[in-house]
Amino acid sequence: MDIETAKEPVNPTDTPDIEVAPGLCQPLRRRFRRFFTAKQLYECLRPLFHMTYIHGLTSFYISCDSKTGKRAIKKTIFGYINGIMHIAMFVFAYSLTIYNNCESVASYFFRSRITYFGDLMQIVSGFIGVTVIYLTAFVPNHRLERCLQKFHTMDVQLQTVGVKIMYSKVLRFSYMVLISMFLVNVLFTGGTFSVLYSSQMAPTMALHFTFLIQHTVIAIAIAVFSCFTYLVEMRLVMVNKVLKNLAHQWDTRSLKAVTQKQRSLQCLDSFSMYTIVTKDPAEIIQESMEIHHLICEAAATANKYFTYQLLTIISIAFLIIVFDAYYVLETLLGKSKRESKFKTVEFVTFFSCQMILYLIAIISIVEGSNRAIKKSEKTGGIVHSLLNKTKSAEVKEKLQQFSMQLMHLKINFTAAGLFNIDRTLYFTISGALTTYLIILLQFTSNSPNNGYGNGSSCCETFNNLTNHTL
């Protein structure tokens, strides 16, 4: 085509339509969907264990075979070195904060004898707590692997009763937990240090590291625990739905021996897809018993792995909530005679946000455990409902065995065996919090200088506070 012809007007109907090949858009859609879909147990937990592997909490990660596409646990030497390096850096940074006259974020807001003591207690508890979390998460990795193997075994047995597990929901749940924990951590850390820098404060790099790593490690530990309780809850819901489906069949027709395979396609719940009941009721109950036994074993193994981590997190959270609530109450009640560059709004906002942050940590732990426990308690009622409806001696015997198993095998999560992690913990923490707040407020009102002063050192303040108490 020459220039003259190019200048001529062109009929729009004569121009060919330029279409983008649909094949170019499909790979992007497939990659996006693949990012939120999973077909295997290890695949749905892959982002979670990549996060723990990077932060040195586990010595393994979930690898993918390029040929078969199967996921599996892969241990590396770097995982062990990475964990040891994280612990060493953490110990060094905490030692620097103690050397810098017990430096903490709260100490930049105001100083008093009680805040010196509170800072010392928070630094020591944070140092011990994060070290315990690292050691109890890093050393007993075999319990975590054993727990995952039990979940894999019970998933295979669930398929025998016609339950197809939707692992994509677990993957999305793990994404939701990790992203929410990350956003809360980044917003709180960024907001805290921006307030300090806006007031011409210069916190050390050691304080930056200890403040960030403490919240990050606690957030990751809570995320892992929440995902494992979610896995337990899912499988308990599946077992309960299988038993309810069996009860529904008995309600619609009289119980009689199954002479031929009868297929009934029925949606179970949001966790599983569909079940095809093709077995005798006695076989279904027997397999449900075996699956329930594996669920209880997996929950017990997970409890052994997380028990000291949960005790540490709840202890740190309780200590920080006590002192933060005390600082806020002292300021709002007008008893505080602090000399600070910060306004009252900034002061109250920081300590209130930190208190809410650790309250969310406790609530996440308790609610995850409580949901799994409540789902396990529903199984007994369904079994006894079936026991009242059946007229078959064989099925009745199986249900009685299931009832005995439910009496001896119960799902329970504890903090090192000291207290149960359920909603009764709210009442325990509330009572203890009220008691310690009253003690701190009375100590401040009885102090000669109203409890405030500059103090020479953290250690002298701690000794004076101990002698005053005695």
From TrEMBL:
Keywords: Cell membrane, Membrane, Receptor, Transducer, Transmembrane, Transmembrane helix. GO terms for cellular component: axon; dendrite; neuronal cell body; plasma membrane. GO terms for biological process: chemosensory behavior; male courtship behavior; sensory perception of taste; signal transduction. The chain crosses the membrane at residues 77-100, 120-140, 173-197, 209-232, 305-327, 347-366, 425-443. It is a multi-pass membrane protein. It is found in: Cell membrane. Its main location: membrane. InterPro entries: 7TM_chemorcpt (IPR013604). Gustatory receptor which mediates acceptance or avoidance behavior, depending on its substrates. Belongs to the insect chemoreceptor superfamily. Gustatory receptor (GR) family. This is Gustatory receptor. The gene is LOC117144657.
